[in-house]
Protein 1
Amino acid sequence: MKPTLLIVEDEPAILRGLTDLFVFHGYDVDSEMDGAQGLKRAQQNDYACILLDVMLPSMSGFEICEALRQTSATQPIMMLTAKSTEQDIINGLSLGADDYVAKPFSTSELVLRVNALVRRSGWSQHEEKLLLSKDVCVCPHTLTGTSYQQPVKYTRREVSLLSYLLRQNKPVSRDELLHQVWGYKTVGDIDTRTVDIHIAKLRKKIEQDPKSPRHLVTHRGEGYQLYTQ
Ligand code: CA
C-alpha cells in the first residue's frame, strides 16, 4: 500500500516536477493548483502528508494550514515557501505546519523531510502498531502481536489485510480485497474463497470467540469490516 501525498502548488512546472519526484520515491500523488480546491481535497481525504505552496490563487498555504489544523492536529503538513525570512517561517510553524523547505529547495532534502514526517505521523504510527482493542495488538513490522495475553504470529498478507480494512473503516467487498490486498486484476469465484479462508484464520488469531467475531465482522452482501474497540 503506497502512502498518498497531496501537493497544492500553482506553478505547473514545479507541480509536475514534484509529482514525478514523489511518484519515483514510492508515493501516490494527488494535486491541486488552487488554494480553496486544495483545502477541500485535503479535508475529504486522508493523506500521509500535505505539501503546501504559500502563494496560491484564492487562498494561501498558510490559510489552508490554519484551516486544516482546526480539524486535525495530526495531519502532517509541509510548507513550500519561497520566502525564507525568519518571520515567514515562524508564521508557517505557528499556524501548525510541521516543517518547511524554502524554494529553491534541494529535491533530495525535500524527499528526506517528507519521508521523516510521514514516518512519525499518525499514519505511520498506525502502521507500526495496530491496536484492535486493549486485548489485541498487531505489530506489522515484526508480524507478531498479542491476543488476550497470548503471543500471535501473523503472515504478511494477514497484516496487509488488517491494515487495509482498518483504513477503510467500512465494509469492504471480497473483490476489492483481492484487488487491493492481493493485487489481482481479475477475480473469479475460487479466488473470493481465498479471502474467506484468510478471514477465518485471522479470526482465530484476533477474536476471543471466532464464531461470533467482535472485530472482523461479516456484513452480508457487503463484505468484511474491521472494528476497533
Ligand atoms: Ca505559488
Protein 2
Amino acid sequence: MTKQSELQELKKELEENDPTPALRSTATQLVFGDGNPEAQVIFIGEAPGKNEDIQGIPFVGAAGKFLDEMLASVHINRDDIYITNIVKYRPPNNRDPLPEEKEAMWSYLLAQIAIIRPKVIATLGRHSGQAFLPNLRISQDHGQPTDISIVLDGHEEPVIILPLYHPAAALYNGGLRQTLLDDFQVVKDILSNEI
Ligand code: URA
C-alpha cells in the first residue's frame, strides 16, 4: 500500500470511529491533513479555524498565508511538506481544544506520523509543542531541535521535534515575525543535513 492510500484508510477509520462527536457536530467537515505523504517534515498546528473548516484543508487562512511565505523564504514548497493539526475538527468559535479532544485525536496523529515517518516534526504554537514536549517554554525553546522518542506502530522510535511559534502569533506580534523566519532556516538546515 502506498503512504497516500494508508493515509486515506486512516482518514476513513477516523470518520468511522468518530472520536470527537460533539466537535464533529458543530464543524463543517473533517480537516485531516494535507500535503506530500513522502514529506521529510510534518508541521502540526492546533486545530482548524474558520477557513480551514470551510475548505477542509489545514492552514489556508491568514496564518496559512504567512506559513507559505516562511516556507518560500527558505525555498521549501508547500508540496514538499505534510501539514495537519492535533485536533481535526474546528472547535466552536475557535475556542482552544479541550484536553479530552486532544487526547481523543492523539492516536490518529501518531498514526499519521507512523505512515509518513518524517525526519523532523515541526510543532506550531505552544499547544502543539507541549503535546510532545510537556515542559516546553516556547519563548525559550523555539527553534531548538529536540530528540525524543515516541511510540509508532508499537515501537519506541526516535524523532526530532522542532518547536516553533504559531504563525498566527506573528500576525498579532510583529516582533515575532523575524524570529519565526529565523527558525524556518533551522527547518531548512535539518532537511539539508546541516544539523
Ligand atoms: N491554526 C491552526 O492551528 N491550524 C490551522 O489549520 C489553521 C490555523
